[in-house]
Design a protein that fits this description.
Elements lengths: L4 E6 L2 E6 L10 H16 L5 E6 L4 E3 L4 H9 L7 H14 L5 E5 L2 E3 L1 H4 L6 E4 L4 E3 L13 H4 L7 H8 L2 E2 L1 H7 L4 E2 L5 H10 L3 H5 L15 H8 L4 H11 L2 H12 L2 H14 L4 H15 L3 H12 L17 H5 L19
Parallel strand pairs: 2-3, 3-5, 4-6, 5-7, 6-8, 7-10
Antiparallel strand pairs: 1-2, 8-9
Length: 349
Amino acid sequence: MTDEVLFEIRGRAGFITLNRSAALNALTLAMVRAMAERLDAWARDDSIAHVVVRGAGGKAFCAGGDIRRIYEMGKAGDPHQVDFFAEEYRLNAQIKAFSKPYVSLIDGIVMGGGVGISVHGSHRLGTERLTFAMPETGIGFFPDVGGTYVLPRMPRASGIWCALTAGRMKQADALWSGVLTHAVHAADLDAIETALAEAADVDAALAPFAADPGPAPILDTAEEMEAAFSRDSLAGILAALQASGSDFAVATLKTLAARSPTSVAIAFEQMRRGRNLDFAGCMRLEFRIVNRILREHDFYEGVRAVLIDKDNAPRWRPSSFDAVDSAALAAYFEEPACGDLVLAREGPP
């Protein structure tokens, strides 16, 4: 068992604490495995009424997966590189199907893999310090961990915008979009934990702590966002933004120009397909994409630019949306040589 994630039973609740604060609680394979094993046990334990997940350190709930480790494994040619994603995606599905209330206390950063272990649960509480994002297109990756299911179902095409641009949301926007079920004050987190420890009814226990985050800033641009990002092609989105010329459109085009063109194209097709798939289908689709993307240039170049050399000057291949080949793009959605993802944890990847 790893000390990177801690487990505790208090009263009627099982508490999970992500315990890598120096790494913003980024997920490792050991953490994923430990969480999956404990959730299995707690699902069968009648003394556990609900599960509460939190992050140590006060800066982040969970900033994602341990991407640097994945990068290093790929550079070394480690054939087990994809195992992390197979098990992470199974954990996401396990949380989605969990038979008891699953309460995430989101204080600080929640991105990538952190979204995958929170947004699929029944209760998502976020404080005024929350920052939500799926930043993957900025590192040549794609918005996985169930983003295929969640993002295209968010209102006003806001999830499509998040997926393609790596746009961020704070508390009010996250509540409006459905990322959160509750807005709460950070100062109340200890009291919330105490209430949950003894609660027979999670909703009743949380009701006194509901906070009003005020109007969602995203509503200022929601109409234009929806008009652009609900188009039926990536070219249509870009054309709509170019035709608009508004401050939002200009800023969005500038943001997209800095992202991996291949990743943005993958994310758009991923969102298009995901809106018509069930959760299991979405996870299988993501496993197909990840098997391909880990073999290609842009992921390694993006991680190099952002996390290794930190020059923030990735050299994407290709470097423009026009140069993304449709046949090459289609290959990301084909069944991998290892076969499609088996969601039962005991099955092979």
